[in-house]
Design goal:
Length: about 170
Amino acid sequence: MSIIGIGIDIADVDRFAEHIERVPELLDRLLTPAEQLRRNGRRRSAESLAARFSAKEALVKALQLPQIIPWHEAEIVSAFSGAPSFRLTGWVLEHFRARGAQTAHLSISHDGGRTVTYVIVEGDGAPLPPPVDQPAPLLPGSPEALAELEAFRARARAGREARRAERAAARGQG
């Protein structure tokens, strides 16, 4: 297995709580009832709710999904130990499998009013390329990277020489 994609997300807990307070139905659109409640039936803390949504955002980034997904199809579940993981269904599961993904590792942490979630997706599929609007990264030390570096340096030298010439011309006229 290889890494297909990596996603990370940071959420501001107070900001998330304010959004939920202003638009209460948003919580039902973003999180399943099981995600909203602890095992004892009480509502989860704002930190826990924000972390669960943040985990879904990290999954979106790891799989390069569109920004709006059927949020209930990527449910965050906890093992008895408390370790979080995903329960994928529907379109999200189909997309996950189409990418050749087999496992999604999830880590969640919250402290100081922020949550951080990290997702690593593994499988037999090819690593996801950069989005279409971005060129593939150059390998450090490759002929292409060295040529790009030299072109950058040449542009910088030309810019410096042009500014020197302008200053010299300004001094000669003044």
